Inverse folding.
């Protein structure tokens, strides 16, 4: 919140509909957390901040991400780390397979970074500033 106050005071910047995204412990963020010894602590903070109300509306439930090759992902974070949706055969699903996958069901792929979207008020496309 201090950043928002500073932006308003110093530059006249005000937000009337702000979406926030949690720093996912992947990529550069993960490397920074590991280099400072804070990775495990950050994962624990996300996990202990779990909010079942936020979990009900996370983006991986109604949406998919599609990469330039047509592979499908539960979310942008999974796309960033290369964890595609897979079918019952274990093969990655492409957009051409979407109709079949929707009919047969494909489980959500979950990993530790998934706590980002379920912590506090949530993150991703449905988050809010708490």
């Amino acid at each position: 919140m201090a950043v928002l106050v500073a932006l308003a005071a110093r530059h006249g910047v005000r937000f009337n509909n702000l979406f926030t995204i949690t720093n996912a412990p992947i990529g550069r963020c993960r490397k920074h957390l590991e280099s400072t010894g804070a990775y495990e602590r950050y994962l624990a903070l996300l996990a202990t901040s779990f909010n079942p109300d936020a979990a009900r509306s996370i983006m991986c439930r109604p949406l998919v991400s599609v990469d330039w090759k047509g592979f499908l992902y539960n979310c942008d974070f999974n796309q960033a780390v290369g964890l595609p949706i897979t079918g019952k055969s274990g093969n990655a699903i492409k957009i051409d397979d979407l109709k079949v996958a929707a009919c047969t069901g494909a489980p959500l792929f979950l990993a530790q970074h998934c706590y980002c979207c379920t912590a506090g008020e949530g993150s991703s496309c449905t988050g809010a500033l708490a």
In short: Residues 2-126 form one domain. Helices lie at 2-11, 27-35, 39-48, 52-55, 76-81, 98-104, 115-118.
